[in-house]
Amino acid sequence: MTRNTDYNTIDAAEFGRGLRGVGVNLLCRDVAAMAAFLRDVLGLSVLRESADFAIVAHDGMVFQLHSDASFGAHPVLGLVPDNPPRGGGAQLYLFGLDPDAVVARADLETVIEQPTDKPHGLREATVLSPEGYAFSPARAL
Asked: Under a CB-based contact definition with an 8 Å cutoff, are residues 52 and 65 in contact?
């Protein structure tokens, strides 16, 4: 993908051919709620959004949200637990974000780690999304 890619008009095949590196796809019961959390709490860019799909960007990297319905024939859907949290065991770091600012925007009950200076040179926090995915905004000390 390039900076000039129009994510609102790109077709699925062209989008797929342009992906590089590591891809992240989060399955969601409610794409709109997840996109709102990513935009409003974490400050990420939601480049494209529908009821079943969203493209989200952070620092030049894009990742995707898919509704359960859009993934109905894929075998990974059978691995998703019926009861939240869905993201148990996965921690998604978002480098370059201010953890204090993110925690200030988050609902208090979703903050599972307050902003803390860590020995590995980062200040980080951890906030749970509506789907139970753990997002950790982090910045260098």
From this structure: no
**φ, ψ of residue 27 in degrees (nearest 5):** -80, 135
Q: What is the CATH number of the domain that holds 45?
A: 3.10.180.10
Confidence at 3, pLDDT banded by 50, 70, 90: low
What is the torsional sign of CA 126, 129, 133, 139? negative
Burial label for 64, CB within 10 Å (0-12, 13-18, 19+), is middle
Asked whether residue 2 is domain-assigned, the answer is no
> What is the pLDDT, as a whole number, of residue 73?
75
Residue 106 lies in domain: 12-140
Extract the runs of DSSP E, i.e. beta strands, from the chain: 25-28, 45-49, 53-58, 61-67, 91-95, 111-117, 122-128, 134-140
**Which percentage of the chain shows pLDDT scores above 70?**
96
How far is it, in rounded angstroms, from Cα 34 to Cα 131?
7
Reported pTM: 0.84
